[in-house]
Design brief:
Blueprint: H1 17-23, H2 30-35, H3 38-56, H4 58-61, E1 65-67, E2 70-71, H5 106-142, H6 144-159, H7 162-179, H8 184-198, H9 202-216, H10 219-226, H11 231-268, H12 279-290, H13 299-326, H14 328-334
Antiparallel strand pairs: 1-2
Helix pairs in contact: 3-5, 3-13, 5-6, 5-8, 5-9, 5-11, 5-12, 5-13, 7-8, 9-11, 10-11, 11-12, 11-13, 12-13
Length: about 325
């Protein structure tokens, strides 16, 4: 009589991190899955390097002089007519990307522009998450006329060109902020990330509403209502924990969208105003000299466009990796 034997699974044969952890009797966790996600590790690692380079160098690139009477070559607005449109050079370090039309270091301007672009992207994503999650939660949980009113408002805003909304925000808010003593540069940056954030929450609201509609029909929500829990407690203790995955993923994907919108607005001349740089404004300033048919200054266009492209790719890789790690349905489907 032959005995039925159970096949012994080899942990090396398991393609899924969660399945491998169960085979090896190692507790599975989000941190473990993150470390085993190539897109999160490589994309996030390169993104961290870019952020650190842009932010850590701000004390140097924003200071106009190192000593009294001695200009700082790394200052983002250090102009020199003799150094106009110089080609990249290995030495000195501030010449590694070359110089622009006014003889300013492209390396310094790309670092400062990266810090501003990333700050606008993150700030706009935070505003988008707050508004989108709030509207989506209320619309999906309450339903009825409240849901219809909020979602029809979202549909109306979807039909308006976001560039028009950004221009209206700038016209309305920048003079008001100037009257209360805010500097023009600070007012310009603040209004821009507010405007982008206030037009970027629409997709987030629809996604959260759909998730809440699905969760509202689950038995544990009915049990919470039967137990007499308040809506605030249901929101914070039972709905939000189940929405962390979608919120994190869409917030990560909102950052590159906001950076791209800022770059496009700066490229059109209605974004960050000179002399403050962003990657979009640097590409706009370099477009004419770069395609000059007589003298090509390609390096003026390559540096900001390459940094912008790498950052956007890293953010999208991180967003895709987080979606795979945090989505329980994908994890269950693999097993």
């Amino acid at each position: 009589m032959s005995a039925i034997t159970r096949p012994i699974l080899d942990p090396a044969d398991a393609s899924d991190t969660g399945a491998r952890a169960r085979i090896e009797n190692v507790p599975d966790s989000i941190g473990r899955r993150l470390l085993h996600s190539g897109r999160v590790v490589w994309g996030g690692g390169l993104l961290v390097i870019i952020i650190l380079l842009c932010v850590a160098t701000l004390p140097i690139t924003l200071r106009d002089s190192t000593k009294p009477g001695q200009p700082n070559s790394y200052f983002y607005d250090n102009q020199s007519a003799a150094l106009s449109r110089k080609a990249p050079a290995i030495s000195p370090l501030w010449m590694i990307f070359g110089t622009d039309n006014l003889g300013r270091s492209l390396l310094s301007r790309c670092l400062v522009g990266g810090a501003i672009s990333l700050a606008i992207g993150v700030s706009a994503a935070v505003i988008s998450v707050i508004l989108g999650v709030g509207v989506g939660l209320i619309a999906g949980y309450r339903g009825g006329w409240i849901d219809s009113l909020l979602m029809r408002s979202v549909d109306v805003l979807y039909g308006l060109p976001y560039i028009l909304l950004v221009i209206l925000f700038k016209i309305a808010l920048e003079p008001a902020m100037g009257r209360i003593g805010v500097s023009p540069s600070a007012a310009n940056i603040t209004v821009l990330f507010l405007a982008i954030g206030l037009v970027s929450w629409l997709t987030m609201a629809r996604v959260i509403r759909g998730q809440v509609l699905s969760l509202r029909a689950q038995p544990f929500i009915e049990a919470c209502k039967a137990a007499g829990l308040t809506e605030w407690r249901i929101f914070t203790r039972h709905l939000l924990p189940n929405l962390i995955g979608p919120i994190t993923v869409y917030a990560t994907l909102t950052v590159p969208s906001a950076i791209l919108q800022e770059s496009f607005l700066s490229f059109l001349g209605i974004g960050i105003q000179p002399p403050m740089p962003t990657w979009g404004s640097l590409a706009s300033d370099a477009l004419g000299p770069a395609i000059n048919m007589v003298h090509h200054y390609w390096y003026m266009l390559i540096a900001p466009c390459a940094l912008l492209s790498i950052t956007l790719l890293c953010l999208n890789f991180v967003g895709d990796g987080l979606r795979d790690v945090l989505d329980p349905k994908r994890e269950a489907a693999k097993v």
